[in-house]
Amino acid sequence: MSNGWDESAAAWITDQGDEGDFGRRFVLDPPMLERVTGRGFATALDVGCGEGRFCRMLRARGIATVGIDPTAALLAVARQRDPEGDYRHGRAEALEFPDAAFDLVVSYLTLIDIPDIDAAIPEMVRVLKPGGTLLVANLTSFNTAGQPLGWHDGADGRPQFSIDHYMTERADWVEWRSIRIHNWHRPLSRYMSLFLGAGLQLRSFLEPMPTADAAPAAIERHRRVPYFVMMEWQKPGG
């Protein structure tokens, strides 16, 4: 069964443009880049790199980066925009790299796209060097628990956000601007248990807010229902 990515690739590329959507540009990029800049990372793996936007940012900071993605159309655009980059077809559940191959592994809004995180998270940890960093940005679990209804007008006509079946793991179809893809909802405890069970140590946990130059209405909506969570995990040793 399709997860929608092949069919939605063209619309996704148009929606993201060169700089990314609101959440990436105004919420996640600043703290994500802060966590990787000046830290001495030499090699990185971007799991679910899409059209390669964050790979290009990492490479611009001198980090030799490999991007993997299962969607051929997105990889084609990544290679077109960054001919010197290293972009490969692959899935998080079975990474074709040796153990301890990377200083840094990045999952930038990709855990919600991965059906088998029981396989994917241990694979990300396996390819990390001892002492290496797994940097994760994900949709908050209460946000994904609001799909597919999410924001809507309440009985009083005011916008409200509905959450239901929080503890039920599931894939929902989400649609916006001609994009229709599966997003996986899982309670936060599911992710935390897997990271901790893999022996990782939590170094940072953030619920980032939009930067001050974002539109005031967008900042206020994000304050009511934050979209994102960021976590930095470290593999022991090194």
Describe the overall structure:
The chain is of the alpha/beta class and 238 residues long. It has one domain (5-234): 3-Layer(aba) Sandwich (Rossmann fold), CATH 3.40.50. 33% of the residues lie in helices and 28% in strands. The protein has helices at 5-16, 22-36, 53-60, 72-81, 117-126, 141-144, 188-197, 216-224; strands spanning 43-47, 64-69, 86-89, 102-108, 128-139, 151-153, 159-161, 170-176, 179-185, 201-206, 228-234. The termini are far apart. The model has no long low-confidence stretch (mean pLDDT 95).
Helix-strand topology string? HHEHEHEEHEHEEEEHEHE
- Beta-strand percentage? 25-35%
The overall average pLDDT, rounded, is 95
Helix content: 25-40%
Question: What is the CATH topology assignment?
Answer: Rossmann fold
CATH superfamily: Vaccinia Virus protein VP39
SS element count, helices: 8
Low-pLDDT stretches are none
Rg over C-alpha atoms, rounded to the nearest angstrom: 17 Å
> What is the C-level CATH assignment?
Alpha Beta
Question: Major sheet, described briefly?
Answer: 7 strands, mixed
How many individual domains? 1
Number of strands: 11
Choose one word for the global shape: globular
Task: Just name the CATH architecture.
Answer: 3-Layer(aba) Sandwich
Assign the structural class, choosing from mainly alpha, mainly beta, alpha/beta, alpha+beta, or little secondary structure: alpha/beta
Measure the end-to-end span: 42 Å
Main sheet: which strands, in order across? 3-2-1-4-5-11-10
